Amino acid sequence: MSWLLALPFLIPIFTALATFPARARPRLCGVLSIFGCTLLLVVTIAILVLVESNGTHAAQMGDWAAPFGITLVADRLSAVMLLISGIVGLCVAIFALSDIGKYRVKLGFHSFFQLLLAGVCGSFITGDIFNLYVWFEVMLIASFALLVLGGDRIQLDGGIKYVALNLVSTLLMLTSIGMIYGLTGTLNMAQLHISLAAVDNPAAVSTLAVLFICAFGIKAAIFPLFFWLPASYHAPPVAVTAVFAGLLTKVGVYALIRTFTLIFPNDLGFTHSILLGTALLTMLTGVLGAAAHYEFRKILAFHIISQIGFLVLGLALNSPLALAGAVFYMVHNIVAKTNLFLISGTAQRLTGSFELSEIGGIYRASPLLSTFFFIAAFSLAGFPPLSGFWAKLLLLKASLDQAAYWVVVVALVTGVLTLFSMSKIWAEAFLKAHPKDYCKCLGDIPRYERYQRLLPVALLALITLLLGLVPGPFIDYSLAAAGELLEPAGYLGAVLGLQTQ
Amino acid sequence: MNSLILQTATRVLVALILVFSIYMLLRGHNYPGGGFIAGLIAASAFALFAIAWGMESAQSALRIPPGNLAASGVLIAALSGMLALFSGDAPFSGQWLRLTGDKTTGGISISNVLIFDIGVYLAVLGAVLTLIFALEEA
Amino acid sequence: MEGPLALVVGILIATGVYLMLARNLLHYLFGLVLISNAANLAIFIAGRVTRAAPPLIPEGLQVPPEPISNPLPQALILTAIVIGFGLLAFALALIAQAYKVLGTLDVDSMRIAEPIPPKREKSL
Fold first, then answer.
1. Which partner from A165, A251, A314, A427 sits 20 to 30 angstroms from A137, CA to CA?
2. Number of structural domains, chain C?
3. Contact state of B135 with C100 under an 8 Å Cβ cutoff
4. Chain C: closest CA distance from residue A189 (Å)
5. Which residues form the domain of C101?
6. Could A3 and B91 be called an inter-chain contact, meaning their C-beta atoms sit closer than 8 Å?
């Protein structure tokens, strides 16, 4: 059993090591990478099934008993995040076959990509806060490398800002972990839940809570700390941006959710007020930034920020329904966002640019791609019956239950502005005729490349449709996950009641 | 740098430093030392070589591209954690192969911790040299 | 012993922040190095500074015969030092490469990823 929980990071690490010596042969590299991702997907499905049938599972690495050794824990939230990482990983690995040139493969693209997946999966499954830091760093160093791989001028420029600001977050996280160890004498998250409640030093606990908000807030790109994201996300190739957009910021949000449901006691009222304020500002600044831009990927990048706001909102409202909304929104958003970035890459392939003023005519040239964009974009804007509608409905219902009417107002304004940006892309890139040239249709690109570009997009669009048309089981699952987060007895039992072999 | 004294001294020193790094690697098993520090010491030997004899000579003296060295180090370290698979323990558990003596009397034994340390040694050596060579070219 | 060490952490962080406020990227990086050391020192202090034997159990014993120092903060710091070393080394290589390609270390003049939009004519 303990091996199963270790596989989500072991598989990508070994895939990374396998692709490294093969990097001079792009075809072989791609096959290895896709094989690894498929394996990862199978394992994450197995974990999800296990958690759904038997409840929270924990495993001790190296047979050191909790709370001293490193614990891996899979509860419902972890399991669904792992599954979605597996799906995104596979889709992007397929898309990368045609999007990433030989030059970048030779520099080790696939190895860094797999290392990134290892970091993401490791962060989702660990139950030890210092281990979380280590996985964050694995993820960070892989993302540094992916961001500047190839060394274009724009990549270096964006990369420097990304590196500079993320290193600050790393140091904040390290310091806060050191402080929490000093206060409680443990690093195991389940043990922290118990030990921190016994600490009679509200000032220190409050300071720590705010330090953690800042540290994870930079990673998650919440309101005043998001500047690295729009500066860098449009610089690397689309496949890299897609996996960044889908997974990286969400790991920050996951860490926030984990920290503020499990580690810090819920009666720390002011942290949730801070989170609520920043969530609303994040939502608004994100969409306003998107409204001001006319570049396909920059609009999408600003929307990431806005949607992080929705996720943090779910955490800040701190009710079962709100957390369920956050979980559902996270899944919906990762799928839709990754898909939109992948589509933007194919759109650029067809029309020659990302600048909305210079492109157009995609709808006439390739209705299929346009349909996929329509599904993803209007799901993001919250149109029924697509997945975004249910996600926003849960969050709005949760705010109405708490009589937080101004939250509803901000959410609705954000929704309208999201619709505005998505319609802007739709009108400019898809409906309008191409201003200079003509838009290629999908038949104009080689057959293999066509499949490699369309298959992942179609798969992700299908998931969006599925989440939208049959939301029942997913909402039930999210509610169960939220219940586990608010009542961590099962988590504590699985970790601390565990006997070593 | 074209200095006769440095070049002559380097010939002797590099060998000494490399042997010392192996000593640190093995000593780390029960005393202060270990793969990380030993890897840094070994990397400093090649850095010294590069300063005295130039980048190309250092690269050819290393024989393997440093990136491959780092990757194989990570592979060895990761595989050492997998040895627990054969004994049915949790991942990354310590595995001991006793050559002489038993648990109470002590004696000589080989463990996967040592293999892990060798992996770390190679990984650190490879990573630091990759960096030094990259910076030297920049 | 905690007091003076905490003061050192404070001084390191203050110096680091001062350096990070500079426009020059290299100063920024040096600031980060100082703060990274401050973070490690802070963990060390958080693990309580005591005078005790190294955390080694002599052969043939199951528990240490005398009080030993807490090995966990040291293990944490070691990990953090290794990670910090890797990240900062990468950042240094990146800055060197950026200087070669972009020709400047002044962050204010790095506007390729986020170009300043051309001024529009004001309409009445």
1. A314
2. 1
3. no
4. 16
5. 2-51+69-109
6. yes
pLDDT on residue A340: 94
Does the pLDDT of residue A56 top 80, yes or no? yes
Residues A43, A37: Cα–Cα separation, whole Å: 10
CA distances from A386 to A329, A390, A464 (A): 12, 7, 7
List CB contacts of A105: < 8 A, sequence separation 6 or more: A23, A26, A29, A30
In a domain, C63, yes or no: no
Q: Is residue C7 part of a domain?
A: yes
Mutate to test the interface with C, among A70, A141, A147, A171 (most CBs of C within 10 A): A171
A114 vs A86: CA distance, rounded Å: 11
Band of pLDDT at residue A64, cut at 50, 70 and 90: confident
List % helix, strand, coil for chain B (3-state, nearest 5): 70, 5, 25
Distance, in Å, from the CA atom of C13 to the CA atom of A452, rounded to the nearest integer, reads: 49
Would you kindly state where each structural domain of chain A is located, as residue ranges? 2-496
The dihedral region occupied by A252, where left means phi > 0, alpha psi between -120 and 50, and beta the remainder, is alpha
- Length of chain A in terms of residues written: 501
C104: domain CATH number is 1.10.287.3510
Q: What interface predicted TM-score (ipTM) does this complex get?
A: 0.90
Q: Tell me whether residues C93 and B134 touch, CB distance under 8 A.
A: yes
Lowest mean pLDDT among A135-144, A331-340, A358-367: A358-367
Q: Which of C60, C86, C96 sits opposite B138 (nearest CB)?
A: C96
pLDDT in tens, A346-387: 998 888 888 888 888 888 888 899 999 999 999 998 888 888
pLDDT in tens, A268-306: 678 888 899 999 999 999 999 998 888 889 999 999 999
In this structure, what token pair is assigned to residue A456? 């992942």
Among the listed residues A100, A97, A132, A117, the one whose alpha carbon sits nearest the alpha carbon of residue A41: A117
Q: Quickly tell me which residue has 């801070």 as its tokens.
A: A274
Residue closest to A124 by CA, chosen among A331, A307, A395, A332: A331
- Shortest Cα distance, chain A CAs vs residue C28, angstroms: 8
Q: Is the pLDDT of residue B17 over 90?
A: yes
Per-residue pLDDT at A303: 92
Assigned domain for C56 exists? no
Q: Which position has the higher pLDDT, C119 or C22? A: C22
